[in-house]
Amino acid sequence: MEEKKLEIRYREFDSREELEEKDRQLLDAAENALAGSYAPYSNFNVGAAVRLGNDIIVKGANQENSAFPSGLCAERTAMFSAASRYPGEEILALALVASQNGKLQPSPTYPCGACRQVMAQYQTRSGKPMRIIIGSADKVQVFDGVESILPFMFNDI
Fold this sequence. Notes:
CATH architecture: 3-Layer(aba) Sandwich
CATH class: Alpha Beta
Number of helices: 3
Number of domains: 1
Radius of gyration: 15 Å
Distance between the termini: 28 Å
Strand content: 15-25%
């Protein structure tokens, strides 16, 4: 038996003003996407935005449904919309924010496992790391690839 250690590196900022302009712009788009959230059951709204290789930003928001689990997360809404509207364009970055009852969450809200795996698939397809920006009321975290939030991603097919 061999014990191994996993280490993840990311950057944490105290405010979005510290971010690079493109990251701040994408995070702002994710926050604007909150307006499209439909979350009458949880009142937990999530907005996401992806930046494509052609520099276009596509937004998505979570969509709940009374027939659980028929809804869809903001991240997958944004990625699937981008892929269907701009086939062949790589997803370079994804930003995400969450709010509840109209207030940004005080700490980062991370993508669910299904969203992480979809992110991994798009990253694998592009052959380039997907930058992930997770915002909250108190801080912003930036990860330089899906493997930072899904270290053992499935990509064997």
